[in-house]
Amino acid sequence: MLANPRFHGKPPLQSSFLHSLRNEGFAFSFCCPGKFPLSSSIPLSLVRTSKTLRIKALNQTNTAEATNDSSEGSQYISKPYSVKIPVGDRHIFVETGHIGRQASGSVSVTDGETIVYASCCLADDPSEPTDFYPLSVHYQERFSAAGRTSGGFFKREGRAKDHEVLICRLIDRPLRPTMMKGFYHETQVLSWVLSYDGLHSPDSLAITASGIAVALSEVPHSKTIAGVRIGLVGDKYIVNPTTKEMEESELDLVLAGTDTAILMIEGFCNFLPEEKVLKAVEIGQEAVRVICNEVEALVKKCGKPKMVEAIKLPPPELYRHVEEIAGGELVKALQLKNKIPRRKALSALEEKVITILTEKGFVSKDETSGGAEIIPELFEDEDEDEALLLDGEVDEGDVHIKPVSRKPIPKFFSEVDVKLVFKDVTSKFLRRRIVEGGKRSDGRTPTGIRVINSECGLLPRAHGSTLFTRGETQALAVVTLGDKQMAQRIDNLVDVDEVKRFYLQYSFPPSCVGEVGRMGAPSRREIGHGMLAERALEPILPSEDDFPYTIRVESNITESNGSSSMASVCGGCLALQDAGVPVKGSIAGIAMGMVLDTQEFGGDGQPLILSDITGSEDASGDMDFKVAGNETGITAFQMDIKVGGVTLSIMEQALLQARDGRKQILAEMSKCTPPPSRKLSEHAPLILVMRVKPEKINMIIGSGGKKVKSIIEETGVESIDTQSNGVVKITARDLASLEKTKAIILNLTMVPKIGDIFRNCEIKSIVAFGAFVEIAPGREGLCHISELSSDFLAKVEDVYKVGDRVDVKLIEINDKGQLRLSVRALLPEASSEKSVKGQPNTPMKEAGSSPISPPKGIFRRAASTTKVEPLKDDSKSTSVNDKEGNRMVNGEAKIGS
């Protein structure tokens, strides 16, 4: 340490060689072995921007000047730059050049005390060309952002949670259409929540931050994107509302777009009409426009040059060649109505095109239609008569020239380019068929709906089941009812113990499209589609007070040819009705598509909206707009597009056409055969809801939960759920165990009064100073030895033993609630007690105990059969209480929710 000149305020010694190199402004290259010797120097102009390590040689005596330099190196060590952008009724703070300076683009966005950091990086070398842009998006909420630690064993963030996956999709969907085709450098966008104040949601900020990071980076893209959330409180639309405002909002809409168009919307609402949704979209688009304009100004100041030179597109003439080879057969293949034969025909045709263009070579018709090209061929003809030649035309030793035709040279192309072009040409032919012919592959008109069939009660042991089929898309929806233990627990930034009593899980196995594939954890697509269907159905569910069950819906896709998430909505709704859940109405879902530029395919130039799109129309079309709701309003929606954006007028046309489609689907759902039972299954659990005084809850639980566990073991019920407000929920498989548990809890929580008499009570244990007598199941009191007899007793065992039954009277309750009983007070000798009136062999009801207010939609099981039938008509059902005023579900004796 003493030998280090830095600790004495002196600059370190430098070799004259290194010093001279720094002064010359040269850079070393340690990453290209073999190209330059280690001792050689490389001018900065030779350092490439995409593959090699970029090094700016800074003069130590003039570092400030080098930092402010506008040359290439200053892009990587830049000073911080920040800007405030108005969003709604406040500003967001955007800063770049402070954190993550080695990333291609990085930015932090602050709203209140919520901070989201996003970065964009790209690989140095391009990956293999493909039709899918190599973009990956990752979003993570750091628990430290809210001053918490992960509840897991490892105490660190791990696999992405479902809501994080959903936000990843919100970021990915608007970014992807803006990426340039032909750019194959793998691009990664990371977004982290670094601080969360509990008021300002980070998801819309993450969309904006990711869009800014891409705009600042070298990744070539068409437009800058931004995102906002729109809420509706009363009649007021709020841009980026706080979490408190969202609690009262009728709408939760997340919108992303550019300064001129909408790229993505997703959200849910409570049966809002289309007009209100469109108004929210209009307000959101205006907010996005303001953000994008400010970001464009920021990019001009500190953005990096785009790698446009890295874009590699297929040769333009290849499109013409593919159309010449496959045009006629492609038209025939696209007319096949069934998906599997059409897919096989297209696959065989693609292989044929690839073989011709990559192995055999292809000569365009245009190159041979004008006849063979005449070229001179050299040869010597010794026998030709020289007299035929004019003087001076041929000298001795010259060769004679004979015109011959040259064969066209076949052209060869790469297999990847052929595949990319074949896909584009197929999409072009499909669009032309729809626009010019007015018919789709399955023969429908643009507004037509596929044939719908539905069947309920397919699975006898399930609580509710439906097989919903629409064309070649089929969903098997299954409903399972349970208690609170079946609820889904969520570990998020703020609510540690948040649970969901309703959730829908979507499964898309490879077999549903006739393929083989790897089975594992749910994909991002499965999580996203499941959440969309869940949000669509949630508004029709009864409240927990009306229906205390936890509800799980499984949507298993058994066939798929487009709109499988909307089939999950339709099938899930019918399955809920089949399980006896008192839903508020029916919900249907439909997916809308679009051909944006119809003039190219023989149309009038106006966008063509397609109802109930298939898989090929989704892949080859310009939009996928999913809308769920009933005849009058919308409950959930999701739109992503493949073009530069859509306008409000296009969205309005799609929403109105979707409403007409939902009406047709709801009409077909009402024809379900067999129809939903609308009754609780005999295999569903029984749930009894009762209320006791909150201070009595501990008597049910017992020390360390011993008492409640002993009750469960004794009665055989599945669970007893107690809440601090005095609500007790008992879940059982049979009515006998439910009634037994109910009696025990009533006796445990009853409030006895001094003077009450209890007949035929069992002696549970004997001690030296008396006996403990059970006056009610689970409730004991002490009868002192002096109160066991009117005569003197030396030992209790002289008169009584465990198991004997006696009549006792309550004579005292101490401060701890312990009971003192007396046998002597009821003996004939105790004349002073003769006037006391008791309640023989009947435990007292708890003073002040009251049941929960009865709900609607009460069900009971018929006494003569195991089937469950509604007490009254579903729409006008009334509540029924048992004699104690408690409510039960799915039981013989007036069981309700």
UniProtKB/TrEMBL annotation:
EC number(s) given by UniProt: 2.7.7.8
GO cellular component: chloroplast stroma; cytosol; mitochondrion
Gene Ontology biological process terms in this record: mitochondrial mRNA catabolic process; mitochondrial RNA 3'-end processing; mRNA processing; rRNA processing; tRNA processing
First-tier enzyme category under EC: transferase
SMART domains assigned: KH, S1
Spans annotated as Disordered: 832-897
Nucleotidyltransferase found in the keyword field: yes
GO molecular function, one term: RNA binding
Domain S1 motif per the UniProt entry, residue ranges: 755-824
Alphabetized UniProt keyword annotations: Chloroplast, Exonuclease, Hydrolase, mRNA processing, Nuclease, Nucleotidyltransferase, Plastid, RNA-binding, rRNA processing, Transferase, Transit peptide, tRNA processing
PANTHER family (UniProt xref): POLYRIBONUCLEOTIDE NUCLEOTIDYLTRANSFERASE (PTHR11252), POLYRIBONUCLEOTIDE NUCLEOTIDYLTRANSFERASE 1, MITOCHONDRIAL (PTHR11252:SF0)
Similarity remark: Belongs to the polyribonucleotide nucleotidyltransferase family.
Protein name: polyribonucleotide nucleotidyltransferase
